Structure to design on (290 residues):
C-alpha cells in the first residue's frame, strides 16, 4: 500500500533543508518529494502546471519564496509571480486533488507601527514590495483554497543557506567592530523549530484537526537585531565590538518594519505547539554550525 505523498517546494532553502533532515524519521508514514527549481520553477506558470499534472500529493508544503527583500523593490514582476501568483496556483491545485496546503508567509506583511504583538487577524499593511507580494499570496491562498494553512514567520535562520546568524559569525571573524540596527524589534525563528512545527501540524491534520487559516510562528522573546548580534557574539566568544545604530543610519532600498513581533498564541492553542525560546534555539543552531 502506497504512503501519502508530501511535496515540499524550496528544497534548497533554509526551511526545505531542515524538512529534509526530518524526512527519514517519518519515512514509515509518508513518502516525500523535495522539489528544487529544476523540478518546479514557481516563476513559470507552465512549470507549475506540468508539475501539478504529474503528481497527486496528500500534502504540499510551500517553502519556496522570493526572499531578496531589497531586490524585490525593482524585480517586482518575478517577486509577485513567486510569492503571490504561484501560491494561488498551488492552493487551487491542492483544493482540486484534496491535498492539505501549507504555505509560509512573513512578518513583513505588517507596517511596523504597532506597539503590541500583531494578531493573525490584524490588518496587513506592508511597507515594502516583498511584504506586499507575500500579503497577496496569503489572500490568493485563502481565496483559491479556504482550507489552506498559512504560517507567518520572522527572522529565519539555520545552519543552511544565507542568514543573519551566519553573516554575523563571518563578519565578526573579519572585523574588529560591527554596526547593527537596534531599533527594529521582532523575534528570530530557528528554521529547524519551524520545520518540526509544520510536520506536527501535518500529523494533527491527518488525525482530524479541523483548524485552518492564518497562523504565526516564531521563537519566543522580543529582541532587536542588535540584541541578536550581541547574543551571537557572546555565544561564539567573539571579541568583535557590536555598536547599536538606528535604521536611519543604515538605509536600505526596502524599508523594514520597526516592530514586527507576532502573537503566536493561536498556533499553540489550535495545534498543541510548544514555542522554543530564542536563546536556546540559537545555542542549538550554533552548536551545529561549529
Amino acid at each position: 500500500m502506497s504512503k501519502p505523498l508530501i511535496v515540499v517546494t524550496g528544497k534548497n532553502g533554509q526551511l526545505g533543508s531542515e524538512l529534509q533532515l526530518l524526512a527519514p524519521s517519518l519515512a514509515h508514514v509518508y513518502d516525500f518529494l523535495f522539489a528544487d527549481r529544476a523540478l518546479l520553477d514557481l516563476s513559470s506558470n507552465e512549470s507549475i502546471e506540468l508539475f501539478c499534472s504529474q503528481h497527486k500529493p496528500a500534502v504540499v508544503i510551500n517553502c519556496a519564496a522570493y526572499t531578496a527583500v531589497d531586490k524585490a523593490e525593482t524585480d517586482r514582476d518575478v517577486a509577485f509571480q513567486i510569492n503571490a501568483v504561484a501560491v494561488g496556483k498551488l492552493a487551487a491545485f491542492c483544493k482540486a486533488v484534496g491535498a492539505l496546503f501549507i504555505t509560509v508567509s512573513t512578518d513583513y506583511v505588517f507596517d511596523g507601527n504597532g506597539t503590541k504583538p500583531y494578531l493573525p487577524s490584524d490588518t496587513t499593511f506592508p511597507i515594502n514590495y516583498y511584504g506586499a507580494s507575500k500579503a497577496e499570496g496569503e489572500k490568493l491562498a485563502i481565496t483559491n483554497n479556504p482550507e489552506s494553512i498559512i504560517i507567518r514567520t520572522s527572522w529565519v535562520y539555520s545552519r543552511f543557506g544565507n542568514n543573519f546568524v551566519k553573516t554575523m559569525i563571518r563578519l565578526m571573524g573579519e572585523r574588529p567592530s560591527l554596526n547593527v540596527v537596534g531599533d527594529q524589534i521582532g523575534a528570530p525563528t530557528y528554521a529547524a523549530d519551524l520545520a518540526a512545527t509544520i510536520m506536527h501540524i501535518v500529523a494533527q491534520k491527518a488525525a482530524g484537526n479541523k483548524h485552518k487559516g492564518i497562523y504565526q510562528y516564531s521563537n519566543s522573546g522580543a529582541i532587536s537585531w542588535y540584541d541578536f548580534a550581541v547574543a551571537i557574539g557572546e555565544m561564539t566568544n567573539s571579541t568583535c565590538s557590536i555598536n547599536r545604530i538606528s535604521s536611519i543610519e543604515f538605509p536600505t532600498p526596502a524599508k523594514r518594519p520597526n516592530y514586527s513581533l507576532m502573537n503566536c498564541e493561536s498556533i499553540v492553542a489550535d495545534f498543541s505547539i510548544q514555542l522554543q525560546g530564542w536563546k536556546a534555539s540559537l545555542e542549538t543552531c550554533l552548536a551545529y554550525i561549529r
Notes: The domain at 5-158+188-219+261-275 is CATH 3.40.50.720 (Rossmann fold).
